[in-house]
Amino acid sequence: MASLVADFQRDILSSKKSVTEILRTAKIISAKLDLRDIEQWIEHELSGYPDNEITPDYRKGAGALQVFNPYRGWITVSGGLTPMACVMPIATLQEFSSQPSAHFQPPQNIPVSAYGEMSNSIASEFLQRIVVSGTVFKTMIEAVRDRLLDWSIELEKRGITGENMSFDKEEKQKAQNQTFNIQHFTGVLGDVKDSSVNVYDYSSIYQLLKQQNVSQSERNEIENILDNLKHAKPNEKASLLQKGKEWIVKNQEFLGASASVVRKALGL
C-alpha cells in the first residue's frame, strides 16, 4: 500500500481530481500532523477568506471595469485593468475558470473619468462591475495546486510519509519542528527568474538512476529536462522545473531517498 503522502502527490498530479478534493485530503493530513496554520489556510481556501484575513497574492487578479449607462448599456472604462482580490471559496473559482469570463460588483464604486469629465462625474455613480477572464481563475487554482505539491515534496524530504494512512510519533514530531509557510510559499516557481539557478549535467545522476532501475524512457525524459534547463530563458525555467518536480513524483517508487539527488541536479 502506498503512503498517504504518495497517494496525495498522485492526486495532485491527476487531472481527474479537482483542487477542492485535493484540499480535503490535505486537510486530513494537516489534521493528523496537527499543523494548525496549514489547516487554517486550507479552510480559507475551501470556505473563502474572511474580511479580516489577508488575501494571498496568488488570489489577486485584474479585470476590466465597466459602468452601466442607462442609455448605452455596459461600457468598458478605458485606462487599463482594475486590480481585485478573489476571496470566494475555491469551488467558486473552479466554476468561474470553466467560463470565458465572470463579473463582480466592487464593494464600493470606483471613481471613473468618462467622456472627458472629471472623476467625480455622474459616470462614477453608475452601476459598476469588474469583468475577469476565466484564465485568471485557472491561474489561481493552479497556484493552489503548486503549493500543495511543494508541501507534499517537503513532507517527503523530511521523512513524513504516512504509511498505512497514519503518521507515527516521530513523523508528527518532525512536522512540529519544521516551518511550512505554505500560504506565502513561492519555492522554485518564485525564484526561477534568477538566471543563477544551478543545474547539473545529466551525467551527474545517470549511474544513480540506472542503479535505481529507472526505465530508459524515464531516464531520457529527465535528461531532456536537464538539457533544456541549461539553455532555457528565465521565463521558460518555471515550466521546466515543474516538469522536473512531476517527474520526481512519478518515479518516487524507484528513487526513494535518492529523490533528493535528482532535486539537487534540477536546482530545486
Question: How would you describe this protein?
Answer:
This protein is α+β, with helices and mostly antiparallel strands and about 270 residues long. It has 2 domains: about 1-185, no CATH class; about 185-268. About 50% of the residues lie in helices and about 10% in strands. Strands 1, 2, 3, 4 and 5 form a 5-stranded antiparallel beta sheet that branches. A hairpin with a 3-residue loop joins strand 1 (about 60-70) and strand 2. The two termini are about 30 Å apart. Mean pLDDT is about 80; it is low at about 115-120 and about 185-200.
Any descriptors?
five-stranded antiparallel beta sheet; alpha+beta; 268 residues; 12 helices; 2 domains
- Count of the separate structural domains: 2
- Could you give the distance between the termini? 28 Å
* SSE topology string: HHHEEEHEEHHHHHHHH
Q: Got a strand count?
A: 5
- Beta-sheet strand percentage? 5-15%
Computed CA radius of gyration, to the nearest angstrom = 23 Å
Count of DSSP-assigned helices? 12
> Helix coverage percent of residues?
40-55%
Overall structural class, as computed from helix and strand content, comes to: alpha+beta
Provide the residue-averaged pLDDT: 80
Strand count, sense and barrel status of the largest sheet are: 5 strands, antiparallel
Q: Which outline best applies? A: globular
Residue runs with pLDDT of under 50 for 5 or more positions: 115-120, 184-199
